[in-house]
Amino acid sequence: MHVLGFAGFSGSGKTTLIEQLIPLLGAAGIRVSLIKHAHHDFDIDTPGKDSWRHRKAGAHEVLITSGQRWALMHELRGAPEPGLSHQLRQLSPCDLVVVEGFKRESFAKIEVRRAAHPTPALAPEDPWIIAVASDQPLQEGALPVLDLNDPGKIADFILAWLRDQRTAVDALHPLGAVPERAGADAVHPRISNPTGTGVADGAAQHPDEEG
Fold it and tell me: CATH homologous superfamily for 2-41+82-184?
């Protein structure tokens, strides 16, 4: 599977853009999964429900399942927060993992900026940013600048990027001996030589960074 992040500060429009892109990529036959980093004490459970009570009683993991979906809740209970590489291993196989957050880790990303929320640019300090999506004209050197208000064109850019990534993986494994999760083997987005997974093991981003 391939990994592509959307990096930007709060209010930049990352969530809205991702919401628009998922059905467009799905219509193109791309199976998409998503990892969202939350830097606060989030909870997807409902206080008072059985699963909530079991967690509060000290269960290490609680898995809720039905005919429509299942969800696994894992309690860290003081252990360090795992980094992105660990979290990727929790997902089922797919074509593309979209990541919102983890903007300080080394993997391909599209930076998202909005004129109404001026923030420091990330691209000059992050060689893993492959394009900038903005609602205003920008001068970003060799980086493509994508129209934030045209998700169709951004989806086309991602599909072309995926084709390039697959070509690179095929070149690395010409006999078809592709290791498990080989789709996550990244070719550095701004250079041609492969650099391994592109997502290093380690702790999650600093808690004061935007999720």
Answer: P-loop containing nucleotide triphosphate hydrolases (3.40.50.300)
Contacts of 40 (CB under 8 A, 6+ apart): 211
Taking each helix axis as running N to C, give the angle between helix 14-27 and helix 151-172, from 0 to 180 degrees, rounded to the nearest 10: 70
What is this structure's pTM?
0.79
* Average pLDDT per 10 consecutive residues for the chain, totaling 211 residues: 93 94 98 90 86 91 92 90 92 96 91 90 93 89 93 97 87 54 44 40 46 51
Beta carbons of 15 and 112 less than 8 angstroms apart: no
Q: How many CA atoms lie within 13 A of 125 on its CB side?
A: 8
Query: How do the domains of the chain map onto residue ranges?
Result: 2-41+82-184
Closest CA to 58 of 77, 73, 41: 77
